[in-house]
């Protein structure tokens, strides 16, 4: 059985484009999920947070985060961070790649290479 590969991001993100190009160049079938258009569920965000940690998942350097009022940014917990990411999907660090049970945040060619060179 082949793991389904899903890439979550937004079309205008240069890092998402790099990841998509990397996957396409290697003939890796991927389903793209636009977090802005298609949204995210609380259960998916909570699952990612459990795997990679909410601190890694939340993009504090994003324009969306910087535009939040100070009260929303203070005393963040996993629950509050997930709620913010649910309300503002562009707060999720991109791209998020799911391959079976594996979840990766961001794009580094060497890490993708390692993940996709593993035998099932």
TrEMBL record:
Pfam families cross-referenced by the UniProt entry: ArsC
Gene3D superfamilies with a match to the protein in the record: Glutaredoxin
SUPFAM superfamilies for this protein: Thioredoxin-like (SSF52833)
Family annotation (PROSITE patterns): ARSC
Protein family (similarity comment): Belongs to the ArsC family.
NCBIfam families: arsC_related
UniProt protein name: Arsenate reductase
Protein source organism: Bombella favorum
